[in-house]
Amino acid sequence: MANDSLDDLIFIDAPVFVTIALVLDIMANRGPRRALPREPHSTRNIHRSAHMTRILDGGVHHCVEYLRMNKDTFFRLCTLLRERGHLSDTIHVAVEEQVALFLHIVGHHAKNRSMKIDFIRSGATVSRYFNDVLQAICGIRHLFVKQPGTSIHPDIECNPNYYPFFKDCVGFIDGTHIDARVSANLAGKF
């Protein structure tokens, strides 16, 4: 009986031993790993430049479709971020490319992987510039976002149709109050 269990042990361990021996043999004879060939830097730079040209000069609506803003607004935003010192050109990436990358990700819910391909950058580079532009946008938010005041707008306060009901409203859109009427069957929802 003891001899049978020893045979079973040898039978079970033999495949494991052969597998380990094959793996060690393959690793020993393989030599150094060869890296995948990379595209020359000059070619990548030409492709990046062509991509930005397609975005900005590809047609009247192409920039709006890709960046969700027109070309003039895009350049004004880049200039503002550059002049305020929130972003600057780096050796490899201009502010315009950084902002275009950010706007496309935000505007289209694009993934890091697709941005790597579009802008021919590594995932770490895409992530770093996305975060840099996000911080820069947060740095200029005070120029565009006004916090609501605590006072009640005079048009609401002086009008008995609005005052008790709209006194806690943040404010008007562009100073215009839009009178809305809801049918009786939908009034409960509002």
TrEMBL record:
TM region positions: 6-28
InterPro entries noted in UniProt: DUF8040, HARBI1-like
UniProt domain DUF8040: residue ranges: 47-138
UniProt keywords, alphabetically: Membrane, Transmembrane, Transmembrane helix
Short name of any one Pfam family annotated for the protein: DUF8040
PANTHER family: OS08G0106900 PROTEIN, PTHR22930
Protein name as catalogued: Uncharacterized protein LOC120271579
Organism: Dioscorea cayennensis subsp. rotundata (White Guinea yam)
Top-level taxonomy: Eukaryota, Viridiplantae, Streptophyta, Embryophyta, Tracheophyta
